[in-house]
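Response to reviewer comment R2.3. The reviewers asked that we include at least one raw input/output pair. We reproduce the pair for Propionate 3-nitronate monooxygenase here without editing.
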Amino acid sequence: MQFTTLLNISIPMIQAPMAGVQNWRLAAAATNAGILGSIPCGMLSKEQVVAEIEHFKAYASGPYNLNFFCHEMPELDPYQQDKWKKKLASYYDELELTPSDDMGILRRPFDREMAEAIAPYKPPVISFHFGLPDTELVEFVKSWGTTILSSATTLEEGIWLAENGADIVIAQGIEAGGHRATFTETKLESQLHTRQLVTILADALSVPVVAAGGIASHHDVTMMHELGACGTQIGTCFLLCDEASTSLVHRDALKSLAEPSAVTNVFSGRPARGIENRLMIDLNFINEDVPTFPYASAALTPLRAAAEKQGCGDFSPLWAGVNRQGCMEVSTQEMVEHLWNVK
Ligand SMILES: Cc1cc2nc3c(=O)[nH]c(=O)nc-3n(C[C@H](O)[C@H](O)[C@H](O)COP(=O)(O)O)c2cc1C
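Raw output as returned:
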């Protein structure tokens, strides 16, 4: 089946799910523009996910992609938390804040309860990050007729995803903004550029492959199709769009181009790409004392909030891919037309 027919879209492009910077508004605008709009659900309760679906359906009539994380949820380790708080103590002093044990909103994996809550909607598409949920849940989701997507950062991950229920595999190159989708023991240094990953996955897999990472122009989109991709998934380019809820400090950093992007684990415990800032540099980008994902973010939330109030992004995860040249302050519709070269 044709890729666009499979996803019920007219342009073979996916607006990447981006937790923390968008909701149904961007997704609805993307779907209305002819691509697949995505709703990031990794940090939402089941009631919030249902509300997102309802809002989306009120504003768009086409398909949508619900995006969930599917990491292992480890026990909270008080020793790790203690060490982490000590590492952040000087920043708490500087901003005159008192540390607390509040875990706030954590990234939670997709589970049976969430699946039951969304089952009545039979979502057309669900994408997972960090692998796939267990077989029983994958089968439950498939019983709704839902198309399943997941991201691979290596050839081995791509093969595993295709063999374990992914109908479409997203080739997430090292250029991509946000969390690396990696779910196997893979060294960051050995991860491939989008071009290389698309080529080897398109060659090896019988399911459609979507290119993601650093795609910022119509030329980039065309090149990915020439390399064998059936579609593209684009995130960073949409961050300045009118319908995104990207914060002011994040928008300023995206526009300035002064700092490069880098991969760091300091904001969550897992490697992710964002614009370089003070916390990343101070803690040397990849730091062994950072609590296991997803527990690192809790102690950073008050620092981030206090600094952002002063217009400062020192403690904010400024997720972005390597290529910010394509970011524009336009509507999502205009961005899609620009990327697909609609005359
Ligand atoms: C701000 C931001 C947040 C992201 N959050 C998510 C997320 O919640 N779930 C997910 O599967 N991918 C997330 N990603 C990764 C995207 O799915 C995609 O791989 C990436 O945006 C592609 O690279 P690009 O940003 O260079 O276009 C995020 C990316 C960015 C830039």
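The first helix runs from residue 3 to 7. The radius of gyration is 19 Å. Further pairs are available on request from the corresponding author.
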